[in-house]
Amino acid sequence: MTQRRSRSQFIEPPIADYALDHSSGPDAVQLELQRVTADRTDRAGMQIGDDQAVLLEILARATGARRAVEIGTFTGYSSLALARGLGPDGRLLCCDVSEEWTAIAKEHWEKAGVADRVELRLGPALDTLRSLPADEAFDLAFVDADKTGYADYYDELLPRLRPGGLLLIDNTLWSGAVLDEKDVTEDTVAIRALNDRIAADPRVRVVLLPIGDGVTVVQRL
To answer: What CA–CA distance (Å, rounded) separates 179 from 115?
Structure first.
């Protein structure tokens, strides 16, 4: 059986293992991307888990998404999943600041046959989003970047989602630190505030899933 990786911190290990064993696993390109990321960076822990990748792919495909945006690409594991879910006619805009890390992503988009679906823009993601035409809309968005920037990304992305479109935000449980009121570090405060804000936002329906380090799924009404 193909080895699978989960980033789950909130599910008992036997249940997490069982769930992974009964979920689709990574293919050869994804496994190679995992290995290369571990060999060429010291941040392999930033990759989403295999279960999260399958979730992204399924949601992109099930919603019929054709235009998507990703904030925080790293070495391309999540973008590869999204591009596959979008299909040959889909287009994914990836925003990141690292030429070194995204070079790995580009190699593996090519190997997976999805490079023609992906546009990479290097630079601050807010600048990229604000430079887009006012009427440019997305069916799906995924955010996995600097946590103190999450609120600004939410502000920029939600109005650009079509009605019924999805915005997925990673790390929204932040290793459980969101429950620790004594934790007033910048990242924790930013995530906690955003979680509260989204839960009270009348423009959306939202579910926070305890998968990985917490994945919030927001649907624009």
So the answer is: 40
CA nearest to 53, candidates 109, 121, 6, 91: 6
Pairwise CA distance, residues 71 & 145, whole Å: 6
Could you give phi then psi for residue 184, rounded to 5 degrees?
-115, 25
Determine what percent of the chain falls in helix, strand and coil, rounding each to the nearest 5. 50, 20, 30
Let me know how many helices (H) and strands (E) the chain has, helices first: 8, 7
Per-residue pLDDT at 5 exceeds 90? no
Question: In the chain, what are the domains?
Answer: 13-220 (3.40.50.150)
- Please check the confidence at residue 13 and state whether its pLDDT lies above 90: no
pTM: 0.96
Report the 10 Å Cβ neighbour count for 4: 18
Tokens for 75, please give them.
């070495």
Nearest CA to 211 among 10, 23, 46, 60?
10
Per-residue pLDDT at 72 exceeds 80 = yes
Q: What is the pLDDT of residues 73-86, one digit of tens each?
A: 999 999 999 999 99
pLDDT tens-digit series, residues 39-58: 999 999 999 999 999 999 99
Phi, psi of 164 (to 5 degrees): 90, -10
Residue 91 dihedral angles phi and psi, to the nearest 5°: -135, 130
Q: Return the amino acid letter for 40.
A: R
Identity of residue 122: L
